[in-house]
Amino acid sequence: MKGTGNVIYLVCDWLMRLAILNVLWIAFTLMGGGFFGIFPASAACVALLKEWIADRRPAPIAFYWQVYKRTFISANVVFLSTFVLLILLGFNIYTSLQFTGVWFYLFFSGTVFLGAGVLMTATLSFIPLSHGRKAKEALKNAIHLLLLHPGRLLSFIAGFALLLLCIRFIPGILPLYSVNIILMLTVLLFPFKQEAQEPV
User: Fold this and answer.
1) Residues 97-111: pLDDT tens digits?
2) Cα gap 146→189, rounded to integer Å
3) What is the rounded CA–CA span in Å between residue 77 and residue 100?
4) 129 with 97: CB under 8 angstroms?
5) 126 neighbors 44 (Cβ within 8 angstroms)
């Protein structure tokens, strides 16, 4: 009974923490005007998740704010780079509409594949950004993680698909369990070894 009670407590504790984390992500994203708040809020979300997984319990709001401020510029450089690349790929998709037959499928599928790679690289960049890495180094580390663990992408995609399925059938969970689940999958599936001392 004691073991079962402990498991129930841990599950409820993590559900509560993840709900708080998603609310923090929404609040700090809005604080950055939405557009410029997404990536810093995500990097701070990853940093807090890593603290919790390491069984450390910093004050959530104060810790989140500290990481958010520290990563704001670097995270937005990554965000703008990602945004520009996606715009260019969007133009490429528009161009592919001019083709027919096999050329259309080649151009379209190739562009979608590249777009998915760009988005996954951007998502993985939150891990080095949370460690205080600058934008260029964070992108290099993200590409390295992507190339080093290609098989884990399947687990990530499966988890993402399961989340979408849950949201479709229970849309009420969206404000509490959405981005936090994606970022937790990222942290758990793609380990990042810090090679240098984090800036204070």
Assistant:
1) 777 778 778 888 888
2) 11
3) 37
4) no
5) no
